[in-house]
Amino acid sequence: MDFNDTPAEAEFRAEARDWLSRNAEKRVPGKTFKLRRGEEGLIPLAREWEARKFDGGFAGIPLPKEYGGRGGTRLQQTIYLQEEAKFVTPPPVFGISHGMAVPVMVAYATEAQKQRYVPATLRGDEIWCQLFSEPGAGSDLAGLRTRAVRDGDEWVVNGQKIWNSGAHYADLAILVTRSDPTVEKHKGLTYFFVDMKSPGIEVRPIKQMTGFSNFNEVFMTDLRIPDSQRLGAVGDGWKVSITTLMNERVVSGVRPAPDFNDIFGLARDLQLEDGPAIADPAVREKLADWYVQSRGIELIRFRTMTALSRGQQPGPENSISKLVGSFKRQQIAAFGMDLMDTAGAVMDKELMPMRALFQDALLDSPSGRIAAGTDEILRNIIGERVLGLPRDVRADKGIPFNQLRENKE
Amino acid sequence: MNFDFSDEQNMLRDQARRFLDDHASRKAVRAVLEDDTIPYDRDLWKGMAELGWTGATIPEEYGGAGLSYEDLCVIAEELGRSLAPTPISSSLYLATEALLHAGSEDQKQAWLPRLAMGEVIGCFALAEGVGAPTPKSIKAAVKDGQVSGSKIPVADGDVADLAVVLARGDGALSLYLVDLSGKGVSREPVETIDPTRSHARLTFDRAPCEPIGKQGKGWEIAEAVLDRAAILMAFEQVGGAQACLDMAAEHAKNRYAFGRPIGSFQAIKHKLADIYIAIELARANAYYGAWALTANGADLPVAAAAARVAASEAFNHAAREGLQTHGGMGFTWEFDCHLFYRRAKLLSLALGGERRWKDRLVGQLEKRNLATAEVD
Ligand SMILES: Cc1cc2nc3c(=O)[nH]c(=O)nc-3n(C[C@H](O)[C@H](O)[C@H](O)COP(=O)(O)OP(=O)(O)OC[C@H]3O[C@@H](n4cnc5c(N)ncnc54)[C@H](O)[C@@H]3O)c2cc1C
User: Fold this and answer.
1) Under 8 Å CB-to-CB from B357, ≥6 apart: which residues?
2) ipTM
């Protein structure tokens, strides 16, 4: 065991750090990009950042050069992200584009499509959204009903999606539909990519509890998609979706604040009854717990790196990062506010420590425990896929989708 | 032993619930949430005044309804459940309590009848910005009958007519009454996590004030008032937590995933059972607090801190996990989960944060232990 980089890793890390320090601001506790502004306002900044990264050779690190990548390794990608996390960078407007759309296009699109879409996406010219969830199909994604019917060289799509982040500004979308309702629910799905400006797509923003509208309802009425934009075989949509979701993890170095460093900074600066909060044993105890969680997640990433550097698939331990991280964020936000006492309720940036980071995060943090797999679903995954516990009884096993109780007229 | 509310009190609860269903619907709550220019629901406040709630515990001789504290607890629980956007906690639980507890006969005569009618709104101005206030930290100061200093946040400080202010006079802390329509007072609304409850910064620049209660005992009196308010607020918190649980249980029965109601998954079943447990523990502690408040015995500080600690935990927990049970819907503006999530955190900070009340609880237990040489 050796937590130090190999000489080659160290060299790449130094190069990344050097580039970052010339192009971004170092992150100090409490400093983040996203502060109570809608995501849209940050798109120009995010685009500019992606373009700069692209020109600097740090976009799509493991992807081949002909698609605009660096032709490097996934290990280098991880190293880069570790370094990026130490800097202030725009929020992950491109999370879906780079984390989901690019890998799925590289895996399933035609050569011409890859040439056309992948570099443009990496450079930040095009933004993607993910049209998966539906009113009746969130955790149970395979229960989706958006219908795709083949018509010659095209598919005609009708249905509704919901909670689609960034659909109101996205140029393109990845979309999963039901092409055959007469087979078991996982088997009748087909996957596409689609231009968001196509006739038949209507996007209606949904206001979130934070007051912003970063996600949407998307209605599709006789939307026509060329068969050439199908990704994967007809009926293979579930397999392609799973590939997409597996890629949902490490795509950005941005870790939503407040994290350990922020609460540590707050505790150091804030005066309680008898001195700085950090001197209070009850505060210290919480800090210690959050440190081992934060550090644990970080070290687990090193294990992932080890697997990657040996050319192996990372192990299932990766799945705990989001579970631990998002609940920790909610708890840290709540505790930070408690330390501020009655005034902890105040949202005014000018008055509050770290420009009301903790208050903003209290309102935003529930999303992290729901989006991209709820806490409960992630625990099921750990129980079933990691620990090999018997699977939950499936009420819908072996039954064609259109014969399921909830789908019969 | 009779650890329950009476039949009359249960009737009062039904009456309160019906009134609030009609007058403090979620629509009414949202009207305050979504319009910055509406600090509280004036019609609702008027209706509450007509029912005598604004002066519930004010004796009849001062124009109040002369209800018991237990009666008020019953009402408070319903107020919490409905999220009623009114200044009742500032006006009745705090300012009125300070007058009843420490006011002179003249002060009571001057203010209580109008507070009882809801014509005058009271507030309690203690905090001076970020961090826990301590006897040493209070900077507001009184000289020649005039107070100067800044109090933030003050719940309902933007709409109140009367403030009870903790300030330093002749070196020692005392409580003062300040008529907010007088000179030397400026107020500025402050945005908080729960816009259904308005808050302000009160700035005093040689504002005329008069002492209330024993001079030099301001901190002790403030603590006694906060203890009393903590029990009443614990009922609001229990009511709010119960509303979260009801919403979550309803959703868990009706929402299907994987061909089953989500409530059939043990992850959800256990989650809701845990909320229920937290609420019942809080309710038990709050009931005991209600009794201690009525009896006004030596056990009040312990009962108050225990009620507050349990109720803050229960409401925050119920709001957070109730929201989680709703999935994506829970994160929307349109669903009501966030109204409770906001209110839960606000109430757990309102009379001082959880950390401080836990500390106070144990401190009070130590004191009682010294006095009786046992902890039961
Ligand atoms: C901020 C945000 C952004 C999002 N962005 C996108 C996006 O860009 N594109 C997109 O397609 N979707 C997006 N989503 C949707 C997200 O994927 C779903 O909200 C999520 O999968 C949960 O589905 P649901 O909302 O239908 O909740 P449900 O599935 O109805 O879940 C409700 C509750 O039941 C629990 N539950 C469900 N099944 C089980 C089970 N088997 N065992 C135990 N508990 C269970 C859940 O954990 C949850 O607590 C986003 C959501 C949020 C909050």
Assistant:
1) B230, B305, B308, B309, B312, B351
2) 0.97
